Amino acid sequence: MLQNIPLYDICSLSDINQDDILISRFAPYLDTHKNLFTTHRHSFYHLVLFTAGGGTHSIDFENFEVKPGQIYFMIPGQVHSWAFEGFTDGYIINFSASFIQSFLLQHGYLESFSFFSGNLADAVINLPDQTYKAIKPLFEAILAEAATPALSAGDMVRLLMLQIFILVNRVGVASVLNGNASYNQTLIKSFKNLIEHHYTDVRLPKDYAAMLYITPNHLNAVCKDIMGISAGELIRNRILLEAKRMLINQKLSISEISLKLNFSDNSYFTKFFKKLENITPEEFRKKLINDHGK
């Protein structure tokens, strides 16, 4: 029975005393950490570039098909599992926020990349051939630096990682066609950042609109144009995601989860969850336990 979803830090996954970064080819990493196939969470940033393999991987309860040339990014706290088919390989880098931030003066630099926002639509990217061919040697260079550290090896790894981030980010930026779209994308990003910080205590779109110095109608129109859903749905979806993450933890009762998410009572929380997910929180938890036991 699933008692509590594991939360891994870098130290628990490394053979050496290293709590800032772990770099590896993917196949040997999988052989060493077979426990990571089942649902788990990370306390660190995590990225994988697939060079071979098939099957699926799941991030925050959404499944993605594994493809060579696909890169995905995860932020601390997200829920994750793998279901590979056949031999799977690539590159993996696990790193702490401080590993990169210690190298930069700009606070929050990682969050400037859309794939580190926690939005799954931006976090799993099937790379164009040109980008894939450009970043694969960078991963090889990172592995080489890790295998035989030279003077300022850590800084070289940071530089190579930043090159990867910038090149991958250009794939997304290239899809922005005009200045208005760029402004709306920035607005959505700011809205999502506000939701991330306030979803337990601020529930109404009009309150977020006030924080953004725009009208509620403007906010809703931009959300529908860019995301295809209303501002209210974005807020509710974030609350639902956190509820799902908490429901994995068997040590938390439904009432405790309801309280942590700032619902007035357990009944209201259950109605909220069932309206969005079509099952009750208890049923969702039982399904997770059954799936985990397969």
From TrEMBL:
Under the heading Gene3D superfamilies, the entry gives: Homeodomain-like, Jelly Rolls
**What SUPFAM superfamilies would the database entry show?**
Homeodomain-like, Regulatory protein AraC
SMART domains, per database record: HTH_ARAC
Which residues does the UniProt record annotate as the domain HTH araC/xylS-type?
A: 189-287
What are the UniProt keywords, alphabetically? DNA-binding, Transcription, Transcription regulation
Task: Please state what the protein is called.
Answer: AraC-like DNA-binding protein
